[in-house]
Amino acid sequence: MEPLTIVSSRTPAGPLLEVAGDLDHSNAHQLRTAAVGAVVSAGLMLVMDLGELGFCDSSGITALIAVRNHVVAAGAGLILVAVPETLRRLLHLTGLDQIFELRDSHRLPSY
């Protein structure tokens, strides 16, 4: 099991969270806490880079949904970038790819 790390920075579109390691029941709360701490303002985008995510269980999926709900309630948006193929497939199978905006890279259009 790889420890979860979350590195926060800023982009012109809004905050960026780079998530690496394994996201599971033991640490999913860290993702929710990091998203709340990112202070997403209305009209901005929270960008979450999942390119180094090694594993995600159902608790991790629940945390992603909670982050999305928090961001939407703030009037902002959420973009998941570099989503690993296994997670992308799971999001597709569950229909969650319809509520998450998935991108391949950080290059975002101007908003």
From TrEMBL:
Residues forming the STAS domain are 16-111
A Pfam family this chain is assigned to: STAS
Which SUPFAM superfamilies does this entry report, sorted A to Z?
SpoIIaa-like
Name of the featured protein? Anti-sigma factor antagonist
The organism of origin for this protein: Actinospica acidiphila
Q: Which GO terms describe its molecular function?
A: anti-sigma factor antagonist activity
Q: Which family is this sequence assigned to?
A: Belongs to the anti-sigma-factor antagonist family.
Output the superkingdom of the source species. Bacteria
